[in-house]
Write a structure and sequence with these properties.
alpha+beta, two-stranded antiparallel ribbon, about 45% strand
Length: about 90
């Protein structure tokens, strides 16, 4: 299981947990099927589970790793969106 940052020409970025980059890409395409331009514009990049992400809680930044965010979810289905990135 690995973490992948998937985006459509730099927009609508999501970090997806999946077993492969192809699985992450397929899941991403199902998530944004109504907003898709060209499949060639979708970028898939493997990211480290220990990468820290800034989460804003009531205006105060809190940093958590991708692994921590995934483990906080109520269900651990794979593939799944861990976090949406701005």
């Amino acid at each position: 299981m690995k973490y992948y940052k998937v985006s459509n020409s730099g927009f609508d970025s999501k970090v997806i947990v999946a077993y492969s980059g192809y699985e992450a890409l397929g899941y991403y395409l199902m998530e944004i099927d109504d907003q898709l331009g060209f499949v060639d514009d979708v970028n898939v990049e493997e990211v480290d589970a220990d990468e820290r992400v800034e989460i804003s809680y009531t205006g105060y930044p809190v940093y958590k790793t991708l692994k921590e965010l995934y483990q906080e979810k109520d269900f651990w289905q794979v593939p799944n969106v861990v976090v949406e990135v701005e």
